[in-house]
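re the bet — no i am not wrong, look at it urself. input seq straight from the record:
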Amino acid sequence: MSDAAAALRASGADDVHGLIGWFAKNHVAANLLMLGIIGLGVYSLVGEIKKESFPEFIRNQIQVQVPFRGATPEEVEKGVILRVEEAIKAIEGVVEYRSFAGEGGGTVYIDLDTRADVAAKMDEVKLAVDGISTFPAETERPIISESRFRNPVINIQLAGELEEATMKELADRLREEIVALPAVSYAQVFGARPFEISIEISEDTLRQYGLTLDRVAQVIRQWSVDLPGGSIRSQAGDIRLRATGQAYTGQEYQEIVLLTRPDGTRIRLGDGATIRDRFAEVQSYSFFNGKRSFGINVMASEEENPIDVSAAVKEFVEARNQTLPPEAQMTAWSDSSFYLEGRIDMMLKNMALGAILVFIILGVFLHLKVAAWVIIGLPVAFLGAFMMMPLPFVDVTINIMSLFAFILVLGVVVDDAIIIAESAYTETEAHGYTLGNIVRGAQRVAVPATFGVLTTIMAFTPMLLQAGATSSVAGAIAWIVILCLAFSLIESKLILPSHLAIMRSSHGSRRGISDWVDVKLKRFIERVYKPFLARAIEFRWTTLAAFIAVAILMLGLVGGGFIRISFFPEFGGDFLMAQVEIQEGAPDELIVDIVGEMTNALHEVDDELKAAYGFEDDIVTNVFAYVQNGRSGRFQVELSKVETRAVEVDLKEIETRWRAKIGQIAGTTELRISTGNRMGGGPPVAFRLSGRSIAQV
């Protein structure tokens, strides 16, 4: 036991009571509580808390896919979509369903109530869909699954001068190698045309062999299939039989027997039909920095750390590029972990800076020893929140929104500790430095300080009740603020008084700026604040009218549009988005030419910006363009990181220059460029048309 603590006990301080008094007397318990919070918080931070770029969106959505090979969108709507909608509309808990009919199949997205049990509703949907007996014979088994959110981590672009088939094969092989990495579980190839096997038979050939198109299609369907054949029991065990006739390549389709003549000769599909095994005849290409490319999108599951996934993929890209053909090259881009690491660094820097500023302010108005004990409440509150984040009922990860919440609450968590420390210091200054006076000073303001924190907690509690897809965003902010404030209460009421009791008394020994500030502050209170407060109370109606006038002024500024209202503020970013569509009936090659012109215009803008701002490095670092179905083109443009630019370039300026360079393009129906620097997305006004049929809409 320290000399200070022994002196406090000797001064007759054993009569303290209450929870605050018990912890103030039992320093070991208070220190064990503090060390326990710190230890468990560090353990959770290092090994238990998942790190991701953004909170996982809660979809509560079920997806029903029904393949209908060879069917037109109209046939899919009548034969599949309408039947599925009729079967599921009576299921309770379904908020909305949206259907999409396309060539070769249809999909129905079922949005559930946020309180619904997705697993139970999936069983109900499966029973309802399986009970449909009127699907066309050409439909395949429905695929029913829960829509899951995967966190995009990084994109890999394979670009070069290789043939399209070779590039596609190489991209598929690279995807398999990436998924085989220990840190990666999911990656998909994008920007590639699908393979297609087409079978053409002339009318003369059909007449020659006495066949019809329906008969040929039926034979192909009967032969190109895998069928189970049961099993044979033997002494050595069961032997399972299976007929494997499913054709996957053009060569295998050529061997399908169309008919067998009485003399035993066989007419195979390849004898009279032209079979082409190639890419689908659609204008769907992806370009990366002006070259034909294939992309690999790497995503992280709920259990994976995006930072680890990104590091593993970038290491793989660097090593694998050494073994690729000279005509091909892989590039890693659109790395979301960069922003996550940046927010973590920003939080740590802001927390350190905030702690220093708080310590300086406290040191100016209080004794340095008191300020030091108060500032300990900051890491205790934060680590306490880290300790609780992995728990199932909290389930908050380290992401951009939770880090923002830590920065938001940074200056609030020490408020109640300042009140407790100041009250205890004032009590001991007036009546002597004893344990009893420290406890009485803390207890005197404990109730108002506690309710002051509880009111802030209650202000954030409704965010925990928010429902919908974005509830995880609001929940991340609310939980961090509530947990930090709750542990600040624990630290200020149970740990801080014990530390103040251990501290040696410094009354009468202060010298320096704190004494000078104390004198000036008390003089200001006596000469300015108290007289002004007395006048305000005396002319209370004038005071009330002044506050009402300020409130009316603020409402007028908002109502008049002088202060804008937006769900999320605009912010600087590193990406530009663009989309262009051409008129119906225009040649497919037109969209490819337009995409090339827009890419060249963007590089010209980059050269102009470098000359205007004196940059040596490119501002436009990567340009990804995707031509879809010969009708539209999408751009995703990655700029140099804001943190690395010597001078910040406004995204609006890049957008304006690019739009001016493009000008008016003949044959287009839409040209849209967005900076991608706002959250929430979507146009300001949107319309939805609905009706009983396409013709009615």
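see?? The chain has four domains: 3-53+340-510, 61-146, 151-194+283-335, 575-674. told u. also The longest strand covers residues 151-160. so pay up
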